[in-house]
Amino acid sequence: MKQLRTFGIWLLALVFMANSDCSNKKLENDPPFTVTDAYTQKWVAGVEMGGSGVNLVIPISAMQNGVQIDSVYFRGQQLPLATKPGDDKTYVAHWVNPQKPDMNMSDAPNGEYGNPVPELSDEFKLAPGECVIQYSLDGKTFYTKLSDIPQRDMVAYPSAPNPDNGN
Fold first, then answer.
1. Chain segment 104-148, per-residue pLDDT in tens
2. Domains of the chain from N-terminus onward
3. Rounded to an integer, what distance in angstroms lies between the CA atom of residue 91 and that of residue 69?
4. Are 77 and 69 in contact (CB under 8 A)?
5. Does residue 73 register a pLDDT over 80?
6. What are the CA-CA distances from residue 114 to residues 17, 58, 149 (Å)?
7. Which of 77, 71, 128, 129 is nearest to 98 (CA)?
8. Is 123 helix (H, G, I), strand (E, B) or coil?
């Protein structure tokens, strides 16, 4: 009986230690770079089925040597960050509104079997207007949070040329 109790204590300690590192994504309050005037901007394509989404623009200044900015957690997804063409200090992430897939709508209990289940990343609890930047320094991964990101006016891209009127 004593061996069973000892085994139970060790098992409980092992489970506790294994789970203690699961949420090791601590947010850094003082990242090795400065974000200036980050903003979001909705966009819509001018062609049918062209899509819509949000661009997240993050200008960076005074970045410490060796810092690699990798990705951003934004609107329930982890998105890659890429530099803006012609401006290596401005990073942009493109969030695309998901297309509505064909869905089975039915009164039968099994009629909706096969509909996709929406998947959202819940690694960080983010409010609208917030994102978490993932970056690395000296081989270690770090995270920092941006809050109160303003939204600029929407961009409506023009439609495709009309072949009937010679455009």
1. 666 666 766 666 655 555 678 888 899 999 999 999 999 999 999
2. 30-98+120-153 (2.60.40)
3. 9
4. no
5. yes
6. 38, 39, 37
7. 77
8. coil
